[in-house]
Every structure is written in C-alpha cells, then in structure tokens.
Amino acid sequence: MWADIRALRDAKTDPELEWLEEEAARLYREGWTIREVAEKFDRGYGAMRRILLRRAPLRPPGARTERG
Question: Among 20, 41, 43, 51, which one is most buried in terms of CB atoms within 10 A?
Fold first, then answer.
C-alpha cells in the first residue's frame, strides 16, 4: 500500500505526466470528449475524467461541441 502512495506522489512530479495532463486538457477544451481523450492516451474514462477535473472545466454531460 505505501509503495502505491509513494508512486502516486512521485508521479505528480513526472514531466511526462505533466505533459500528458496539459495535452489532454488542451484537446478537451478544443471539443474532444473525455472518452476520445482517454483513448488517445490509453487511459480509462474515469482516470481521464479525474485528470481533466484538475486541468479544465468540464462540460455538462451530453453537451454538444463543435470541433474543427
């Protein structure tokens, strides 16, 4: 259990994770769905939603977006 906690703490300072979170938020703000962003980065829907909660205001469920 403590190893998991330490891994999470260390991951917060990982530059690759920082980049992934910034890029995911950018795509979401451009109109991608959470599911699309999660698939792009090979993450689960719930994990990506938690990342985006820290990085971008989330749209209401079912909100339509215009991309392109």
Answer: 51
Spell 16-42 as b/e; 16+ CB within 10 A means b. eeeebbeebbebbeeebbbeebbeeee
- For residues 7 and 65, give the distance between their C-alpha atoms in angstroms, rounded to a whole number: 36
- The overall average pLDDT reported for the chain is 86
Q: What is this structure's pTM? A: 0.74
SS3 18: helix
| Residue matched to tokens 């530059």 | 15
* Angle (CA) 16 48 34, round 5°: 125
The DSSP element (H or E) to which 6 belongs, if any, is: helix 2-11
